[in-house]
Design goal:
The protein is about 10% helix and about 35% strand. It has about 270 residues and is mostly beta strands. It is globular, with a radius of gyration of 18 Å.
Length: about 270
Amino acid sequence: MKLFRLPLTTSQAKSGNWVQDTRCDNQNFFRGNRYTLRKDKSVMLLFDDSNSKIVGIQGEIPKKKVLRKSLPWIHDRGHYVITAYFRDPVSICSNNTSSTGILGDRLLIQNDSSAFDYVTIPLREQGLMGTKWVKGKCFWSMGQLYWYNISSRMACRDMFPVFLMYNNGELNGFGWIVLDDLDITTSTSFVRATSTSFQVFYHSSSFELAISRLENTGLRWHRSALWVNIFPRWRLFCPLKQSTMPCDTNSTQDFPETRTANYIDIIF
């Protein structure tokens, strides 16, 4: 696995050879000034027009030769795009820009062609209780994984393309999942995952049956994972037998109620 650190401001983006390809415009289906790196649109960063801070991130896949995608994927000029925000979209590219931290204070997954229609992701693991998020495995250096409404009966088209990662009960990352045979030779973010590698990500029988069923279709798993730093990566552990580590929500360690994230890593 390799880590690639993403820029958090437009000045960092420009110095890292990221190029702006779209400006803030109310006619766009998303909010923010968009930057790409070397024309690779598997990762596209969104920045605020007024304070130049990062406000969101997008992933793009070509429409050609992939299964028809539904929300939260948005069809855009021959491609499908998925969007996440770290700040309230209302404040992006407006006079109401929030100064809350360099990485914002929330995780929102856009769920329509309007940036103001979104799914709010709980910042605390306990916020997932009573929802359709299904607990996967705790993966060393990543955290406790969750998948949305996974079941042995689900159709390929129903796979929600987002997974979450929590550590010590706090959200510390998320990622995209794509069920298609993508050309990833030019991508800096999507990697192909085999059934063997996916065994470390899930533990429910429903998930295992779903994986087998999807593989029988001849599709390929691709995933892109992003870490929003709340805990240093060397502390993203998993519970050992008879011990309590940070990934365990029953940990008795004293952590502050709020944390300030200071970087985003992407793994590939």
